[in-house]
Records
---
Amino acid sequence: MYPKPILLTACYVALTSFAAAADCNFAKPIGGCRATISIDSVSGSKGSYSAEVTVKSSAGACSKVEYYLDNTPQTTVIRSGSSEPESLFGTKPITKKSISARKCTSYANANASKDSAGNRAIGPEFFEGRWQGSVGMLLLRAGLVLDLSVEGNEVRGTSTAQNSGEVVQVNGTVSGGVLTYTYAQPADGRPASVRITRKSANSISYSGSASGVTLSGTLQRL
């Protein structure tokens, strides 16, 4: 038998964790998000099949992902973290082609953490996905596409200049709701630094600096 203090502590942690996870206002959507659904395992035989999947939202906690299994609508609610395991069942073998994401919605979370200024802080998962827009200075601007994936607080992906087709690798980290990374410029190998912050539920502010020149702009989530 566990000592009473340990039991009380365990119960307190469980209750506070549950409260934090459940404090989502699903009557108050605050924006869109990007959903990914991966198949972890499949089983079954003729006429009766199942699959264990992981449903992930770029918005993290308090998300609702709507998708289809073949022609049957499905919905997964993510109350905490950025993903939720799900069991799917069908009469045909379940493959990646069987599942198609339809809609991802982010909802208000009363327990979202706040930064030192009192603003709601964002998790690294916010930056996951494809972003597109233009960056530059004054009237000189060019298209840019970011393809980003997130694991923990690390961000990996590519940055593609649409006018030249140049691609650089993104290897960054997220701290305090800010994504930062550095890379070597393709033209001369000189270092460049990038700082990205959330602008709205589906847009980010991009600022890249190199050799005393700063290029900035807004990118939208695709």
---
Amino acid sequence: MRTRTAATATATAAVALLAATAVPANAAAPAAVGWSVQHGTAAATGERWTEPSGGWPSSTLVIEGELTNTGAGCYSVWTRFVYDLAPGPVRKHAEICGPGSVEVDVRQSYWITTTGSITVCRGTEDTSDCGTWRSVTTWPANRR
């Protein structure tokens, strides 16, 4: 009987904790967090935040911004994410050749154990010549 009572108390405490930490649907959206990376004649800047998706503990990490190039070469924006210590593949999200700018729009599944980085690379085929990888999961990355 004691085991059943302890289990009930633990479950009740867990539900109370989740309810206390949940963000109300009508809560004001906190400000987004800025990010920026650069390499050669290209730079990418923007904002990032998380959005609810399917309930706790999962959410969506949103990274939006712009890749700008002032030179003649080609550049691209790449991300890489690690899930529970398991690295995922690098992914290209934007590319530009010559002067101008293009949109960067990344939507990534995010859990509290996810880490991720973003960079700008010379060329559009791989990540062999890139700027510094910058974290996009250093918090706070606020809900919007």
---
Amino acid sequence: MLPAIVLIAEGLVVLWFLLFLTMITSIYLDGRDYGPSKASTVERSFLKHVRIFVSLGIPAGCLVALADAFQFI
């Protein structure tokens, strides 16, 4: 029973994260009309690598959650 509860909770976390990403994307798309801005080096570096962070972070989190739910770790 407990693994099922954990998996449901993890699914809700993934849903929340996807909604959060949708909100951030919406804010980004709204802000594109404001014209160019001066981004710092840290901001430019983060924005160049955010796709990698997300595409590696979500599957890694899912794998760790599944491994923990089924007591592989």
